Amino acid sequence: MNPLDPLRALGASAWQAAEEWVNEERLHLAVTGLSRAGKTVFITSLVENLLALAGGRDTLPKFRAALEHHGDSRLRGVTLLPAGAGRLPRFDHAAHVAALAGEQAAWPARTEDVAELSLAIVLDRRSAIGRSLGPRRVRIDLLDYPGEWLLDLPLLDLSFATWSHQTLARLRQPPRAALCADFLGWLATQNPEAPADEGALRRGHDRYRAALEACRDQLGLRYLQPGRFLNPGPQAAVPFMWFFPAEFTGRPIPGSNAALLEARFDAYKRHMRDNFFNTHFRAFDRQVLLVDVLGALHAGRAAFEDTAAAIADLCRGLRGAPGWFGLRTTPIARVAVVATKADHVPALRRDNLRHLLAALAGPAQGTATSLHVAAAVHATRDARARLGGRDVEVVEGVLLGEAQARPYFVGDVPAGMPPESFWSGAYFALPVFRPPRIAASRGMGVPHIGLDEILVALLGDRL
Ligand SMILES: Nc1nc2c(ncn2[C@@H]2O[C@H](COP(=O)(O)OP(=O)(O)OP(=O)(O)O)[C@@H](O)[C@H]2O)c(=O)[nH]1
Ligand SMILES: [Mg+2]
User: Fold this and answer.
1) Taking all residues of the chain, what is their mean pLDDT, rounded to a whole number?
2) Do residues 255 and 184 both lie within one domain?
3) 136 lines ligand 1 (CB under 6 A)
4) Do both 441 and 324 map to the same domain?
5) What's the pLDDT tens digit per position in 372-402?
6) pLDDT class for 321, splitting at 50, 70, 90?
7) What is the CATH number of the domain that holds 294?
8) Share of the chain above pLDDT 70, in %
9) Same domain, yes or no: 173 and 141
């Protein structure tokens, strides 16, 4: 008899609560990263490979080994939990897998809103006594969201005056200054102390947003705030969004332009805190921080330093216990910092990537932090090619829109913060390889690099 059976007499809900208390462990896993870091692809591949593992395929060898007890697998199954009456949009796992498996295999689109997905890993207990209770479930709640929003986290701590001061200082530095000239020139003609002029403020907001978009699209920059200006989500046209950084001294005069901008900034912060960070970011106890190190490196010095600054700010929040900008009351149990898209680098050179990541993530490193080099979807294979008269390690893959595989040489990946001389090379965007076509029949898994190691680092203590 199951020792919980007598509790059935208490009624269905009491029994369910007791059963969950004994048999279920719930982990909130935050998959964080700046925009385009690879969050959506990561969640899709992770889930698909877990489902495949439960179906008997050896898709995650190190994770499989961690689930063994005296040589036997304790894994009983992996299930996607039903949506129930959840309040949040659901992560469309099936659609993302279908895109990867389609005739023209495609990457998922940019994420425009939050979405969640829960799955349960069902495990036999290790001890004989424990086994009489039946299998245990480790429930994992995953959240996907537009990466731009993450940079509103360091903003929550700032007053409008401080944020304006810091932001304008950044906009006036090259290379931002050239792309922000229109906004900065317009700002210089405005009087923040004049009575609030709604029309002018709206125009200023549009100019500021256009400047942010140019910095993102033309320079590959990432430290752009507020994140929602670049990816507004479902609530695009609300008045509290219509602000921009402005210069003024002392407290804004009531009824002035500066006062209205400050009121909007404060309302924006409240909105982000109440509807995004407090609801979703408070509860997580495990965190993956995905960093597109290679993408930043190849976009040039400004983009790289920008990403480094953003990661440093986010990591500072992670390190401080209880941490994260006053949002959290308990420390995050485990953090995995991951350099993504490592399939652009042949295996022999991936160590450098790990060292470079270590230099970037310096401020975050603590006892509970692990560093990884991974590709959620392995879209290339290692090869050798002749380049400039010498044999070099390359990767080979089919670029999006092409039919034939071709070699790609990522160049030198520095094993630490790049020296001055590194930046003399040409800057370019990382090539976008076509994802490998995965089997349309579910449960076959997705080729990857290193997801199993990440899972063990994040969940190993609870398995
Ligand atoms: N080759 C390769 N490319 C990848 C991998 N992961 C992500 N990418 C590329 O990076 C792009 C962005 O990945 P996403 O998962 O959509 O990024 P995201 O963090 O969800 O981005 P937002 O939703 O905009 O915040 C993809 O469209 C791919 O081109 C990978 O493992 N290998
Ligand atoms: Mg996404």
Assistant:
1) 88
2) yes
3) no
4) yes
5) 999 999 999 999 999 888 899 999 999 988 9
6) very low
7) 3.40.50.300
8) 93
9) no
392: in domain: no
Residue-wise pLDDT for 163-184, tens only, equals: 999 999 999 999 899 999 999 9
Q: Is the CB of 49 under 6 A from ligand 1?
A: no
Q: Are residues 139 and 242 in the same domain?
A: no
How far out from the chain centre does Cα 318 lie? 14
Smallest-distance ligand from the CA of 92:
2
Nearest CA to ligand 1 atom 27: 107
Per-residue pLDDT, 322? 44
Nearest one of 169, 188, 170, 171 to 179, comparing CA atoms: 171
Verify that 159 and 274 share a domain, yes or no.
Answer: yes
Q: Give, using CA atoms, the residue closest to atom 21 of ligand 1.
A: 36
Domain boundary among 251, 280, 309: 280
The winner for highest mean pLDDT among 204-208, 222-226, 367-371 is: 204-208
- Of the bound ligands, which one is closest to the alpha carbon of residue 146? 1
Residues 222 and 158 in one domain: yes
Is the omega angle on the peptide bond into residue 175 within 30 degrees of 0, that is, cis? yes
Residue 233 lies in a domain: yes
Domain boundary among 280, 313, 331: 280
Give the Å distances, CA to CA, from 149 to 94, 144, 258, 269, 446: 25, 11, 24, 12, 28
Residues 78 and 193 in one domain: no
Ligand 1 pocket, 433 CB below 6 A?
yes
Q: What is the DSSP string of 331-386?
A: --SEEEEEE--GGGS-GGGHHHHHHHHHHHTGGG-STTEEEEE-BSS---EEEEEE
Is residue 323 pLDDT above 60, yes or no? no
- Would the pLDDT of 265 be above 60? yes
Is there a domain that residue 50 lies in? yes
242 pLDDT exceeds 70?
Answer: yes
In this structure, the answer to whether residues 183 and 276 fall within a common structural domain is: yes
In a domain, 403, yes or no: no
CA 237 to CA 239: how far, in whole Å? 6
Name the pairing type of β-strands 68-69 and 381-387: unpaired
**88 secondary structure, DSSP code:** S
**Ligand 1 touching residue 41 (CB < 6 A):** yes
Strand pairing of 24-33 and 286-291? parallel
- For 256, which DSSP code? B
- Whose C-alpha lies nearest to ligand 1, atom 5? 341
Domain residues for the domain of 127 are 18-148+285-378+436-462
Hey, which of 6-15, 19-28, 406-415 has the most confident mean pLDDT?
Answer: 406-415
| Backbone φ and ψ of 434, nearest 5° | -70, 135
Q: How many domains is the chain partitioned into structurally?
A: 2
Q: Which ligand is nearest to the CA of 377?
A: 1
